[in-house]
């Protein structure tokens, strides 16, 4: 192999690496565009659906959501205060479910 051929091979390798970088950048850009488009469409659909729900029902949904969040916080607080009790209750529920849905031999 001559020096000229060796030099050309190195140049081709450098060009291939540059193309790989460009392709990677292009892929990232396309991904960002697609994600943005999906997010925008999702927001449009959500807005359309919410516009069709009566205001009083939206209020009820928000109230239920708030109540659910309060219940979750209460359960978390109880779990933090009584970790062994929580474990015992979970084990008991697991045992009962196992008995209910377990196979009979």
Distance between the termini: 78 Å
- The poorly predicted ranges are none
The whole-number mean of residue pLDDT values reads 90
Number of strands: 0
Structural class: mainly alpha
What general form does the structure show? elongated
Largest sheet: none
Order of helices and strands: HHH
Percentage of residues in strands: under 5%
Radius of gyration using CA atoms only: 30 Å
Q: Provide the helix percentage.
A: over 70%
In DSSP terms, counting alpha (H) and pi (I) runs of 4 or more, how many helices?
3
Question: How many structurally independent domains?
Answer: 2
How is this structure best described in words?
The mean pLDDT is 90. It is built from 3 helices and no strands. Helix 2 packs across helix 3. With 105 residues, the chain is an all-alpha fold. The longest helix has 50 residues, at 3-52. Helix content is 91%, strand content 0%. The protein has helices at residues 3-52, 55-81, 83-101.
Summarize the SSE layout with pairings:
Blueprint: H1 3-52, H2 55-81, H3 83-101
Give a quick rundown of the structure.
This protein is mostly helical and 105 residues long. The chain has helices spanning 3-52, 55-81, 83-101. The chain has three helices and no strands.
Keywords, separated by commas or semicolons:
2 domains; 105 residues; mainly alpha
């Amino acid at each position: 192999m001559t020096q000229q051929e060796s030099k050309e091979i190195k140049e081709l390798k450098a060009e291939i690496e540059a193309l790989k970088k460009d392709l990677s950048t292009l892929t990232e850009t396309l991904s960002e565009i697609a994600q943005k488009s999906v997010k925008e469409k999702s927001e449009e659909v959500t807005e359309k659906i919410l516009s069709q729900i009566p205001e009083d029902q939206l209020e009820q949904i928000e109230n239920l959501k708030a109540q659910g969040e309060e219940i979750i916080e209460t359960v978390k607080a109880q779990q933090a205060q009584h970790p062994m009790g929580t474990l015992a209750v979970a084990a008991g529920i697991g045992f009962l479910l196992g008995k209910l849905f377990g196979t009979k031999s």
